[in-house]
Design a protein that fits this description.
Elements: H1 2-15, H2 17-27, H3 33-65, H4 69-88, H5 100-107, H6 113-122, H7 125-137, H8 141-163, H9 165-206
Helix pairs in contact: 1-8, 2-9, 3-6, 3-7, 3-8, 4-7, 4-9
């Protein structure tokens, strides 16, 4: 249970579904309720699938390119640190993941659940590098099974949040969203610092 809660907290912070809500709301503003529900369901399904694929196969991809886990932790930590710094400054909308060109392309698509919502909005470089690192840090298949369970649980949480996006926006308001985003940013930066220190220490010890 401790591992489940710890991984869920860290992955939730890095994925930051709260920061994705304004983008999701703006992109689905012209959708019917049925279309929003379908988009939310497909987005969470794709998100969970992407996370599991990179979690289980990420280490093989790294081996193919000759990238070590410590180097990944260092690089991933820097990406997460940059994301956390943006959140700490109150940037609610995930501008680093979705730019205007991608938004325009999304408007012309019939289905935006895979791209850009599931990737790169939710499952971006930070969350992917975190999952690959977790795979290496937890060699037991029992622990890996718990982490996969976390991904399904997070997918369910994201699905509920996407369905409730208008309600959450009304309840929190702009000030509430910014306050929560800053708190999330601080947590994300702390996670990033731990990964940077761990990656740098491992690289130095190999020298």
């Amino acid at each position: 249970m401790e591992l489940f809660i710890a991984v869920l907290a860290s992955l939730f912070s890095v994925v930051n579904p709260i920061g994705a809500l304004p983008v999701y709301t703006s992109m689905t503003s012209s959708y019917s309720i049925k279309e929003r529900r379908r988009t939310a369901l497909h987005t969470t399904m794709y998100f969970t699938m992407i996370c599991i694929i990179f979690f289980l196969g990420g280490s093989y991809i790294l081996s193919f390119f000759g990238i070590s886990i410590p180097a990944l932790r260092l690089a991933g930590g820097l990406v997460i640190l940059n994301s956390g710094f943006s959140l700490l400054n109150g940037k609610v909308i995930r501008a680093e993941a979705i730019n205007e060109k991608m938004k325009e392309e999304a408007r012309q698509k019939e289905d935006i659940s895979f791209s850009p919502l599931a990737m790169p909005l939710l499952s971006g470089p930070g969350s992917i590098s975190l999952l690959i690192s977790l795979y290496a840090l937890h060699p037991s298949w029992h622990e890996k099974g718990i982490i996969i369970g976390v991904m399904f649980a997070l997918g369910l949480i994201i699905y509920i949040m996407l369905l409730s996006a208008p309600l959450i926006a009304r309840m929190l308001g702009e000030a509430g969203m910014k306050a929560i985003t800053r708190i999330m940013g601080f947590i994300v930066m702390a996670i990033a610092c731990e990964y940077i220190v761990g990656g740098a220490t491992s690289l130095i010890s190999k020298q």
